[in-house]
Each structure stands twice: as structure tokens, then as C-alpha cells.
Specification:
Length: 458
């Protein structure tokens, strides 16, 4: 019954009525397809307290007014949201798109249809802007596809790309079939031309892997990544570093990196790093779900049977992760204890970094492997931010305004403010009461149009 009501709501919202619209409070005319969302609780993404019983006027994809008791005269569609909460659509600043299909992630899966299918999934979960972090392939940049995705002209989330990331020759990231397009320069002399090629593709960021993956592979040379940073900055492109160790984080920050793209997990961060990051405005994407997913299926979490989770999974993945054999192997693996400890350290470090006034943004690494469920991971990340000690209001700001700043799209997205693009989610519960209420999606709006009733279908 709830889904039938949601679908009825969706049809009502998307109805288009032609009319001459005048007589707003300021006596200016409104567009023929104006929509007024009425009497909602508004969490605007700025970190400000929620607005109660507040209206949002949407015209031509933009928010043109926010306030109580806005004049409804001449407005084509007025949607009563009494008892509902509106938040900005979420932004994930670290995902992987296109290589995941079924129970594997490989280059052969990277097709236009697969990219669009996954972006539609993100949109169903209320994530309307994503940054694909360094595992994209030439197809993305052919025939105008990337421009169409970045500009939000196709169905689903808008997608930004870091193109092809940088790693070590025969080293990190581990040589898998989804990593065959990663640049692996032998020396600093190769770097400038590769950065130039990325700049010509108008990438949103440059990705570097600075990790040895538990001592299993060679780490990228520090002289090489220092050159990558300086060459990227020559083109005014930010550099995001995959990192694990505190020592690497210190060096990366000293060398000018812009974003630490994963949690520091080998030990707790020290005051020196916090001071460096704060002074240099280095941003932090903790990807807490990555570390939870690395061990959690061994102990069968309570959300594993929830529809909101299952709908995010690729075919065959639920059967894989719930099999007794899979769970036994994961729990008996040598890395199990280490992964669990790394997750707990990540939670501690996230809170320290946030409390130091360093900008923290939402990102999950979803889509990099089958167990990192696209869409669900972003909502789970919000819950883990709260578990780490953030308030629900702070967590929502991390997923909206802060993530928009990392993508450098905060002039248009990330907050519900006059003049911003009307990307938003209507929720049937208030996430300030319980952060899991972000999962109670009634409608997702992209550019002012209702595009989804959420991931759970009849």
C-alpha cells in the first residue's frame, strides 16, 4: 500500500499543467511548470537547523524561493509534504562506475548501457552526482558521452570522472582486469604528458594510489607522485590520493595533495597531520563502508536481509555473500582481524579529523567490487559517520554541501538555497531523529523533476 501511495505521489508530481502563472508574493510571474513543495521539514545541507513547515518553489530546474506560506496563486502543481522531510540529493565523491556487473568487476563490463544502468541505480537511491575515481575507460570520452553525463543530460546521476588514475609499474593498484588502463609511469619524465592527456579530457580530478595493499605490491615512488601533484596543479586539477598509512598521509600532505581519498587505518592520526591538513585545506573522504564491507559479511549484519540493501546488489551477489562457505572463508582469513581493526581505527580518525575542522566529504568506493553495493553504500556511510560520533545533521552536510565542494560543483549543487539546482529527496521520515530514515525515500527530484520513487519497487 505504501508503494502504491508513493507511485500515486510520483504521478501527481510529474504531471505537467500549462497555465499563466502570476501573483506570487513578490508580484512576479512564475513559469508555467512551476512546482511548489509545501509545508515540509527542510534540511538544507548547510549545517543549519532544520526549517519547519517550509515551502520550496521550483521553476525551470532551479529553486527560486524557500519560506513559509509562499503564495500558491497561479502555480501549476502544489505538492503537500506535511509530515515529510526534504534534503538535498546526496553526492558521492568516490565511486567506480561501469566495471561492475554480477559478481565481478572487469573492463569487459564497461559499456554505455552498464554505465547508464548504474547511474540510474544511484539516482534511485537519491545520489545525483558522483565522481568516478580513476578506473574509467576510453569509451567514456567518446561521442560526447562524458559531457552528456557530466551535464546531467542523461537519465540517472550526473557523473564526473578522474579518468585514468596513477599507480606503480607492476605494483599498486593490484593488476586486475579493471585496472589495465591505469597509468603506471616508470619515471617522472613520463608524468607531464599523461597529465596533459587527462587535462584534455576535462577530468574533474586526478587519482593516485599510494599504498602497498598490506605489503602485497610495490607502492608508487614518492618522486613520481610528487610530480603528478605538481603537474595536475599546473592544470588546476585537484589530486585525490588512495592512502592507508599515516606516514604516507604526512608525505602526501607535505607534497601538496588536495584530498585523502580513504581513511588512514594503520594507526590513529597525530596532531601534526591534523595541523598540516587544516593549514593546507586538505580534504578527507573516509570511505568507512569500504572497511566495513571488508569483514562484515562474515558476521551477517542485521541489514543483510533488508530490501533496501538487496535491491542495490548485482545479480548473484546476495547468494555469494550469504553462503556458509563465503562467510566461513572470510572469518577464517588471515586479514579478518586486521580489517576489523582497520575499520575501528578509521572511525576514530574520522572523528578526530572532523573535530579538527577539516572538510570531510561523502565517498564510499562503491562499485569497485561486488560487495560494495552502489546506492546502499552511501546510506550506510551516513550511518557509520553517525556511529563515529557525528550528529545526523553533520553527516547530511558531509553528504551534500561538503561533497559538492570536493567536486567543485557547490555553486549549483549540494544545498537547498535560492538559485541552486533543485536536486533533492523527499523522505517519509526525519533523518535527524534516526539517520536510517534517509532510506525512507518517497521521491527523488533531478533538476526540479521527480525522477524516482526510490529503489524499492513493487
Amino acid at each position: 500500500m505504501m508503494k502504491i501511495l508513493a507511485n500515486t505521489f510520483f504521478l501527481a508530481v510529474t504531471a505537467f499543467i500549462f497555465c499563466t502563472c502570476e501573483n506570487r508574493q513578490d508580484n512576479t510571474s512564475v513559469s508555467a511548470d512551476a512546482v511548489l513543495l509545501r509545508n515540509a521539514t527542510i534540511i538544507d545541507g548547510t549545517g543549519a537547523d532544520a526549517l519547519q513547515q517550509t515551502d520550496i518553489l521550483i521553476e525551470d530546474s532551479l529553486i527560486t524561493a524557500i519560506g513559509q506560506h509562499l503564495d500558491t496563486s497561479g502555480i501549476a502543481s502544489v505538492i503537500d509534504l506535511t509530515g515529510k522531510t526534504v534534503v538535498p540529493a546526496f553526492i558521492s565523491a568516490h565511486v567506480h562506475v561501469g566495471t561492475l556487473k554480477g559478481t565481478d568487476a572487469t573492463g569487459k563490463n564497461y559499456t554505455r548501457d552498464n554505465i547508464l544502468r548504474q547511474l540510474k541505480k544511484y539516482a534511485d537511491y537519491g545520489i545525483l552526482n558522483v565522481l568516478s575515481m580513476g578506473t574509467d575507460r576510453p569509451l567514456l570520452f567518446e561521442n560526447g558521452l562524458y559531457d552528456s553525463l557530466k551535464n546531467g543530460q542523461l537519465e540517472g546521476a550526473s557523473m564526473y570522472s578522474a579518468g585514468y588514475g596513477f599507480g606503480a609499474p607492476q605494483g599498486a593498484p593490484p593488476m586486475g582486469s579493471a585496472m589495465d588502463k591505469v597509468y603506471r609511469p616508470d619515471s617522472i619524465t613520463e608524468v607531464a604528458a599523461k597529465i596533459d592527456s587527462l587535462a584534455s579530457l576535462n577530468v574533474q580530478a586526478v587519482k593516485i594510489w599510494v599504498d602497498d595493499f598490506g605489503g602485497e605490491v610495490k607502492k608508487i615512488d614518492s618522486a613520481v607522485y610528487k610530480t603528478i601533484i605538481s603537474e595536475a596543479h599546473r592544470h588546476n586539477i585537484a589530486v585525490v590520493a588512495h592512502a592507508y598509512y599515516l606516514s604516507d598521509a604526512h608525505q602526501l600532505v607535505a607534497d601538496g595533495v588536495d584530498v585523502i581519498g580513504h581513511s588512514i587505518r594503520d594507526q590513529e592520526v597525530d596532531d601534526s597531520l591534523l595541523m598540516q591538513m587544516k593549514e593546507k585545506d586538505v580534504k578527507y573522504i573516509p570511505t568507512l563502508t569500504l572497511d566495513e564491507f571488508a569483514y562484515i559479511y562474515a558476521i551477517k549484519p542485521d541489514w543483510i536481509e533488508e530490501t533496501f540493501f538487496k535491491e542495490a546488489l548485482e545479480p548473484g551477489v546476495y547468494e555469494m555473500i550469504t553462503s556458509a562457505d563465503y562467510q566461513k572463508k572470510m572469518k577464517e582469513a588471515a586479514a579478518y582481524t586486521k580489517n576489523k581493526a582497520a575499520f575501528e581505527t578509521a572511525l576514530i580518525n574520522l572523528k578526530k579529523i572532523f573535530d579538527a575542522g577539516i572538510l570531510v566529504a561523502l565517498g564510499t568506493d562503491s562499485g569497485a567490487s561486488p560487495v560494495r553495493a552502489q546506492g546502499f553504500a552511501e546510506h550506510r556511510e551516513l550511518a557509520l559517520l553517525v556511529r563515529a560520533g557525528l550528529t545526523p545533521l553533520q553527516a547530511i552536510t558531509v553528504a551534500t554541501q561538503n561533497a559538492a565542494k570536493v567536486l567543485k560543483i557547490d555553486d549549483r549543487f549540494g544545498t537547498l538555497e535560492k538559485g541552486k539546482i533543485a536536486d533533492l529527496i523527499v523522505l517519509n521520515g526525519n533523518p535527524l531523529d534516526d539517520i536510517k530514515n534517509t532510506q525512507m525515500i518517497e521521491a527523488v527530484y533531478k533538476k526540479g523533476k521527480a525522477v524516482s520513487t526510490g529503489p524499492i519497487k513493487d
